[in-house]
Design a protein that fits this description.
mainly alpha, 2 helices
């Protein structure tokens, strides 16, 4: 269950980097803001990933 979350998190980081590259290419602030928000959600998901990993190890 945790592996798909990690894969989804990696995809979010890749999408964030793509949005930020588009922001630099087109000089649009909205793309940079969207990339920052996606990166923040990826970081939050990574925190949840590690918290869930620790919780599941206690349950097993």
């Amino acid at each position: 269950m945790l592996i798909p979350i990690l894969i989804f998190d990696i995809a979010l980081v890749a999408w964030s980097l793509h949005l930020m590259q588009e922001a630099i290419d087109h000089k649009k602030f909205s793309f940079m803001l969207a990339g920052t928000l996606v990166a923040a959600s990826a970081a939050a998901m990574l925190v949840v990933y590690f918290l869930m990993g620790n919780c599941i190890s206690y349950l097993i």
